[in-house]
Design a protein that fits this description.
Elements (H helix, E strand, L loop, with lengths): L1 H112 L4 H106 L5 H231 L4 H97 L9 H28 L4 H20 L6
Helix pairs in contact: 1-3, 1-4, 2-3, 3-4, 3-5, 4-6, 5-6
Length: about 625
């Protein structure tokens, strides 16, 4: 029975393994399909992004062109106004030119009249030439002064750079000297500490020497003036060490004095450097003030020169400006007329493109409506499939629980019967053991009675030899029986222990089999859940795939120009869009109510709810046609 059960369990395990392998293969196929659909979805999303980017760029270009047209219109109006103003100014200038011509005629008459006064004019010219010569000389002197001032500034700048470099070097040297002083101070402090330590050691040694001398004198007094060798040696050694320590103290004092001298020397150098830096700073400030004064004088001279030059060139620049303005206005007029024509043509072309895009968008809207209707049909089909698969899963679970309960109960009953049989056998063995113990006790009592009888018969003189032989035989027989019973008892105890071990093994195996059964049931439930999830994902992916395929077809129709708009006006389109949003919300509320009523199917409704929410978000995110 056990072997049959083991075989059945092995066959069940093999069937489970086969089903697991099949499920793994199916899972791999589904993952391949899922990856393929994901790749197609990514491609479609990329195409959608490209189309949306193109539409955005077209909208931006339209807006930029409209802005450019408005700006050009504003510029045209401004230019026309400026043209009118310039025309008015030109008329004024023409009038002024006519006046100037009249004045010129008058001046020519006056020149002709004043021709006689040429001699006075020659004298005036000579006077003006003298003045001009004086002005040239004054300008030369100003230029010479300028060059001198520039040279002074250059010298001051060089001195400034030289002083700055010297100051930096002196600062670096002062830092180095300060660091050296700090190092020397540290050395001095260390040496002072060492001197103090050595002085303390010397004092300690001196105290020890005094003690030793006192001890030596005491010993001398006790010994009657005789000196001892080891103590004298110690005294001599101590005196030598004292002399060495004194030399070291003298050397350290000399080093400390040298350090103090160096410190004084460095402090003096530091004071000298500080004085030099102060003097350099004073020179630097004096030179900077001189530089500022010279720069102010140069600026004043330059302003005077520029003022004179400006007054000389003002009239010439005014005449050139007027001529340039007249020429610019004529060229601007021609260019603006040309640009207006080009911008009008471009704007007309862009308006045509925008109309085409609007038609395409209307086609897309009709496609979306058709997609919505398809989605509603797919949603109804998905609900039917969900109900069908739920019924199937429930039936499979019931069948599985029934099969598992029957097989498990049969195995448990068999195990219980086996345990009962082993317990009965164990009780029988215990009874046999007790019987053997009782037999042993009876045999021992018999032996004792036989021995007593033998002793009694030994006392009797008749048939002594015969009685001894018979008694001996009986004793040997009884000993053999006792030995056999002991061996049988040992064998039975060994068998009993084996049966106990077998019982424990069976119990352990039963627990392991129960754990394996529970694990396999858990794995089966997980696999069933995974299968349901994969089926849901598969259905969702098929729905999205069909949607993407339909959308791709619509985009191809839009691209080829074959698409026919369902809603011709934007108001109808907005109403249809609102109806679609309301319908999606209605479906979402229905699914929410179903998930609350039937919590065991909540997992199946989650993905459909997510899809509906995504659709709602997409519909709400899309701009209305009025915008």
């Amino acid at each position: 029975l056990q072997l049959q059960r083991i075989d059945t369990m092995n066959t069940e395990m093999e069937s489970y393994k086969r089903s697991i392998v099949k499920e793994q293969e199916l899972n791999e196929k589904l993952t391949l399909v899922l990856n393929r659909t994901k790749y197609e979805i990514q491609n479609l999303e990329k195409l959608l992004q490209i189309n949306s980017e193109k539409s955005d760029t077209c909208k931006q270009e339209i807006s930029t062109y409209t802005k450019a047209l408005e700006e050009t219109q504003i510029m045209l109006n401004r230019v026309n106004n400026e043209k009118a103003e310039k025309q008015h100014e030109l008329n004024i200038l023409q009038r002024e030119i006519e006046k100037e011509n009249q004045d010129r005629v008058k001046l020519e008459d006056e020149i002709y009249q004043q021709f006689q006064e040429q001699l006075t004019a020659v004298k005036a010219a000579e006077y003006s030439s003298k003045l001009r010569f004086k002005l040239k000389e004054s300008t030369r002197e100003v230029e010479r002064n300028l060059s001198k001032v520039e040279n002074d500034i250059a010298r001051a700048r060089l001195e400034k750079t030289y002083l700055i470099t010297n100051i930096k070097q002196l600062e670096i040297q002062s830092k180095e000297y300060n660091e050296q002083i700090l190092e020397k101070n540290q050395i001095i402090t260390r040496s002072e500490q060492e001197i103090k330590r050595r002085i303390l050691l010397i004092e300690q040694k001196q105290n020890q020497i005094d003690l030793m001398n006192k001890k030596l004198e005491n010993l001398k007094e006790k010994a009657g003036g005789i000196e001892l060798g080891p103590l004298e040696l110690e005294i001599l050694n101590l005196q030598k060490s004292i002399t060495q320590v004194g030399k070291e103290i003298f050397d350290l004092e000399q080093a400390w004095l040298k350090g103090q001298n160096e410190l004084v020397h460095l402090t003096n150098e530091k004071d000298m450097l500080e004085k030099e830096t102060d003097s350099m700073k004073l020179k630097h400030t004096i030179l900077m003030s001189r530089k500022l004064r010279t720069e102010n004088t140069i600026n004043n001279m330059e302003t005077d020169c520029t003022h004179l030059k400006r007054q000389i060139e003002l009239l010439r620049l005014d005449l050139e400006r007027l001529n340039k303005l007249i020429y610019k206005e004529s060229t601007n007029k021609t260019t603006l007329e040309r640009n207006n024509l080009l911008s009008e043509n471009d704007f007309v072309r862009e308006l045509k493109g925008a109309e085409k895009d609007a038609l395409h968008m209307e086609d897309q809207l009709s496609e979306i409506r058709q997609e919505r209707e398809n989605l509603l049909g797919n949603l109804v089909e998905a609900e039917k499939q969900i109900m069908f698969w739920e019924r199937k899963i429930q039936l499979a679970k019931e069948m599985k629980s029934a099969v598992d309960s029957e097989t498990g109960q049969g195995e448990i009953r068999a195990m219980k019967s086996e345990i009962h049989r082993m317990q009965v056998r164990y009780e029988q063995l215990l009874r046999q053991q007790e019987k053997l113990i009782r037999d042993m006790e009876t045999s021992v009592s018999r032996r004792e009675t036989i021995l007593t009888r033998g002793e009694v018969q030994q006392k009797l003189p008749q048939n002594k030899a015969i009685m001894q032989s018979t008694v001996q035989k009986k004793i040997t027989d009884l000993q053999r029986k006792i030995r056999d019973t002991n061996e049988q008892a040992a064998v039975l105890e060994q068998k009993l222990e084996e049966y106990k071990n077998d019982q424990q093994d069976h119990v352990r195996r039963m627990t392991e089999l129960g754990q394996q059964r529970d694990q396999s049931t858990n794995e089966n439930t997980k696999l069933d859940e995974r299968i349901t999830e994969l089926n849901l994902q598969k259905n969702m992916m098929l729905i999205t795939l069909t949607e993407k395929q339909l959308r791709a077809k619509y985009y191809e129709q839009v691209k080829e120009g074959k698409y026919i708009k369902v809603h011709q006006t934007p108001d109808v389109l907005n109403t249809a869009r609102e109806n679609q949003i309301n319908r999606l919300r209605y479906f979402e509320t229905i699914l929410h109510g179903l998930s609350e009523r039937c919590p065991q199917f909540r997992r199946q409704f989650v993905q459909i709810q997510d899809m509906l929410r995504k659709r709602l978000a997409d519909q709400l995110a899309r701009p209305s046609s009025s915008q």
